[in-house]
Write a structure and sequence with these properties.
- There is one protein chain.
- Strands 17, 18, 19, 20, 21, 22, 23 and 24 form an 8-stranded mixed β-sheet that branches. Strands 4-5-10-7-9-8 form a 6-stranded mixed β-barrel. Strands 1, 2, 3, 11 and 12 form a 5-stranded antiparallel β-sheet that branches.
- It contains 25 helices and 26 strands.
- It is globular, with a radius of gyration of 34 Å.
Length: about 775
């Protein structure tokens, strides 16, 4: 049976080479895109799921209940982990851990700044972290100990076992290496080069020992059989039993789900990166459908040429079922042929795809699940592509086809035109999506942040640079390319420090509102380029401003102050006079509404910001490094540009935008392949009509318009259908942003015009080709 299908298919391929080429090319590209998306989705789905007991690993989360909102975060009290094991039998292991820190390590002649975390020893019992050297139970049990990654260990110790040897931290603390772990895999959200003892950090961080403060995170392993709803009920008010000064409600959440489903709104899980996974699955389906529609349309369009073949086969006894099997078999063979091409294309484009998505994806041909998904996609594509042509061709009447009276029915034409409309509609939706996403990203990149991120660098003031900051600052400001320099305790990217300890006249006694706290020094507001809408900045010209405070616009609205300048408010039981109001500063993502914040002078700032001129940036940076090295000779000088870090905050959105553009272009190309083939068949079927019209004096322009009109109507219908759908989908996507560019009317205009122009260009080629044929030759063929 298969041998007969192959023979029949080969004869069909040789007779219809052009449609065969278009079908194979379209299906190959469609499968390639879909395979790449499947690989990306698979990589996203396995993040943090490689641990053997992943079903028992839970993150401790908080609902922070404020007067105006409920925020869900992974920050927890710094002493939560060790207490959970004592007070709740459900916890087998629990460990607090910190956010990432940067420290300078020195061993012999090697000095580098590395990124790591402080963890408790249970951390290595909860997660599957492979140890090369060291004993898991003894890694971080003694003061001043460190566990190194494999890469970091080789950097400082070569290939030898470093356990028991010393390494210097920040040029003043001698650490003992107690273990070496394999580098964290790419599909882990934990990425660090070293781990330090959590108790060492806790002893130097008094606020983290208080139940009313939050900052570190807590991860745990629950005992098998633990009932999660009952445990969460017990945990909810746990912190309230330790202190009255809290707004926290605790709960456990599956660690494996946190990466994809980590967004919450009013206590309810509301999205996350899973939205991107769903988006690209839909795109993969769209692209495959567009390729399948090409196959259906071209197969039914050439039905008249295969009608006699069907008639002869039926007249000699072929059943309808055998004909359906034949045509679906041909479709499967073409799809399998396209499969081999697509695998080669995937291997070729995978390095570029990895660069675009910032991943390290590879194809594991030994993975039965992945292979099954690929084969399932191929079989489904082959069946979908061949199903309609198979049922359509097999339903032809033998007598009519042999008599040559076979004509295209209105049902056939309607179905084919409907498929074209559907195909073009999908392409337009992708065009609108890519333009809207690009527009939103541009809005984010160019929006008013409340400060000026361009030509603004920052670096941390460690050791002698921090201790002698006034001297360092004076020397930096003498550099010709440096406009101004000042420090803050806030990075201006991401939440850093917040409090509810602000009181003001008229505040309700039970109101709990979170304010972001910016610690600054004189000149910081001017250096970062914040705009004051009222009042003044901190200045030594007015004497000491240590009892003064500056609010942002949102804070004034939240507090309900009509004439804020000169008002006295209370912060942590101390009075402060309001001297200025700044524009709202977007230190978080545009997905988040700007909250109330305040600025206060402090003397424990750690991050220096420098505004530099753009004339000779490299020379200015070299001079800044020279000054830094005068005081911190042993420390490597590392700086960052604020605009680069700000762009990195939207890497996910930028990747989605880039991928959607590429996939939209591919979808358009596949659609054009189909239109190209269909227009060729249309021109061939109307060859006699074109010849008669030319003899009667029709111009080439009128003939091109004649042949293009039908397709223009179909595209206009597709625009009408796709516009409301794409508008709804893009508004749904932008709903996650507190600040959005919106889906403007010109996006639909551009997308519709693009679809029309692309269609005209595609169809016009075949139309011109048909129009320039000698009418005598066209009429002779009849």
């Amino acid at each position: 049976m298969l041998k007969n299908y192959i023979k029949t298919a080969f004869r069909s391929f040789t007779r219809y080479k052009s449609s065969f080429f278009i079908n194979v090319l379209g299906l190959s590209i469609g499968l390639t895109c879909s395979f790449l998306i499947v690989l990306w989705v698979q990589d996203e789905l396995k993040v943090n799921r490689y641990h053997a007991n992943v079903e028992q690993i839970y993150q401790i989360m908080e609902h922070q209940v404020y007067t105006n909102e409920v925020l869900t975060r992974s920050n927890t009290p710094g002493i939560l982990g060790r207490n959970l094991k004592v007070d709740f039998p459900e916890f087998e292991y629990a460990s607090n851990y910190t956010w990432g820190f940067q420290h300078v390590f020195t061993k012999d002649n090697e000095t580098h700044r590395e990124t790591g975390v402080f963890v408790e020893n249970d951390f290595y019992k909860i997660l599957d972290i492979d140890l090369i050297y060291g004993k898991r139970d003894e890694l971080l049990t003694s003061p001043n100990t460190v566990v190194l990654s494999e890469t970091m260990a080789k950097k400082y110790f070569g290939d030898r076992n470093p356990v028991g040897e010393g390494i210097t931290l920040n040029n003043d603390t001698e650490l003992t290496v107690t273990g070496v772990q394999r580098d964290m895999p790419a599909y882990s959200t934990f990425q660090f080069e070293y781990a330090l003892r959590y108790d060492d950090w806790l002893s130097e961080t008094p606020w983290a020992n208080e139940w009313g403060n939050n900052g570190p995170r807590t991860i745990s392993t629950l005992k098998a059989g633990t009932a999660i709803p009952e445990l969460n009920e017990k945990l909810r008010d746990y912190v309230k039993t330790k202190t009255d000064d809290t707004i926290v409600e605790l709960f456990v959440y599956p660690f494996a789900d946190l990466y994809l489903k980590g967004d919450f709104e009013n206590r309810v899980q509301s999205g996350g990166r899973i939205e991107y996974v769903r988006l690209f699955i839909i795109i993969a389906i769209f692209i495959l459908l567009i390729a399948c529609i090409n196959f259906m349309n071209l197969s039914t369009a050439k039905a008249s040429k295969r009608s006699k073949e069907v008639g002869i086969r039926k007249s000699i006894g072929a059943s309808k079922e055998s004909l359906i099997g034949q045509f679906i078999g041909e479709s499967m063979i073409i799809t399998i042929f396209a499969l081999f091409i697509s695998i080669a294309l995937v291997e070729f484009f995978l390095p570029m795809f990895n660069t675009l998505t910032d991943k390290s994806i590879s194809i594991d041909y030994g993975n039965p699940i992945l292979v099954s998904v690929f084969l399932g996609m191929v079989l489904l594509t082959g069946f979908v592509s061949g199903s309609y042509p198979a049922f359509f061709l097999s339903s032809m009447q033998a007598i009519q086809t042999l008599k040559g009276s076979m004509k295209s029915s209105w049902k056939e034409a309607f179905a084919r035109k409907g498929l074209v409309v559907f195909q073009v509609s999908l392409s337009i939706i992708l065009i609108v999506s890519s333009v809207a996403i690009y527009n939103q990203i541009q809005f984010i990149q160019n929006g008013n942040l409340g400060y000026k991120k361009d030509n603004l660098i920052y670096f941390d003031t460690e050791d002698e640079v921090g201790e002698q900051w006034e001297t360092v600052k004076g020397q930096l400001e003498k550099i010709p390319g440096v406009v101004s320099v000042a420090r803050s305790n806030h990075p201006f990217l991401g939440q850093n420090s917040s409090t509810t300890g602000l009181d003001w006249p008229g505040k309700q006694s039970d109101a709990r509102i979170e304010f972001e706290f910016f610690g600054v020094e004189y000149g910081l507001i001017e250096t970062v380029g914040m705009e004051l809408v009222e009042g003044r900045a901190f200045s030594t010209e007015f004497g000491s401003d240590s009892t003064k405070i500056i609010l942002n616009e949102t804070a004034v609205k939240v507090m309900g102050l009509e004439n804020p300048i000169g008002e006295t408010i209370t912060l942590w039981d101390e009075d402060y006079e309001i001297i200025g109001i700044t524009e709202d500063v977007h230190f978080q993502s545009f997905r988040t509404q700007v909250g109330p914040s305040f600025f206060r002078l402090i003397d424990w700032n750690w991050r220096a910001f420098a505004r530099i001129e753009s004339n000779d940036i490299s020379n200015t940076l070299a001079q800044i490094e020279d000054v830094y090295k005068q005081f911190n000779r042993e420390y490597p000088f590392e700086y960052r540009f604020m605009n680069q870090d700000y762009a990195n905050m939207y890497r996910a959105e930028m990747r989605v935008g880039a991928l959607s553009r590429y996939f939209a272009i591919i979808a358009i190309f596949i659609s054009c392949l189909g239109l190209f083939g269909l227009s060729a068949f249309t021109a061939e079927q109307r060859a006699k009509e074109i010849g008669v019209r030319k003899i009667l004096g029709a111009s080439m322009r009128s003939l091109v318009v004649l042949l293009s009109t039908d397709y223009t109507k179909l595209v206009l219908i597709a625009i009408a259908i796709s516009t409301p759908i794409s508008w709804y989908l893009m508004n749904l996507w932008m709903a996650d942003f507190a600040y959005k560019a919106g889906v403007n009317w010109w996006i639909f205009l551009i997308s519709g015009c693009a679809a029309l122009c692309i269609t005209w260009l595609t169809v016009s080629f075949q139309s011109l080709k048909a129009a320039i044929v000698n009418p005598v030759n066209s009429l002779k063929t009849e």
